[in-house]
Amino acid sequence: MSSTKLDKAPEHTGLTYLRHEDGKYTYAVFSEMNVDELETWYTFIRKEGNAEPLESLKRIIDGIRWDDAPDDVSVFSLDTKGVSEKTAKEMCMIDLDHYFFHSKFDGKMKRVPVEDHSSSRRTAISLHDQVGGNNIADFLSDEDLENCELCDPSENPSSSSSEECYSYSDDEDETSTATKINEDDLPPVLKSSLATTNP
Description:
alpha+beta, disordered N terminus, globular, two-stranded antiparallel sheet, 4 helices, four-stranded mixed beta sheet
């Protein structure tokens, strides 16, 4: 059985890294309970290299009294203790939701700018405006699409490459593996609609 070792993050962040013996990274777990779709989406964010933006976001989320938030905004949580890379990867393969799958990001995280802290209600609205609807991906990079549910080869055996997978992230880096949708893969009804709108 593999053992684990605790590594301290920079002192001012208060985070602890749970580094596994195999040297793989650990991932914070961001969750969005979306009230419109009645689904909860998990986003796994690599902790190493992202201590400050993770701690900033956790302070924002933990400072909100969610009972005071409007009924039409998502409810967010962030667990910075983290899970192993294997767990994060396996969680991205489960198929429980209809609108978004869980996702995993290996790159740098940008700080989420939530400026209105005058009340829990206003902070919740401001946070929802920034990251609601699975838009936390806009603040992350290097989405891991290898063998993920978004490009499950059982759905399309000819499309096993991560280069043909859909990505939630808006990363325009040339090395990004975000997908370009192939018109030939669309259902007939969408093809006809596309032909109508693009003569």
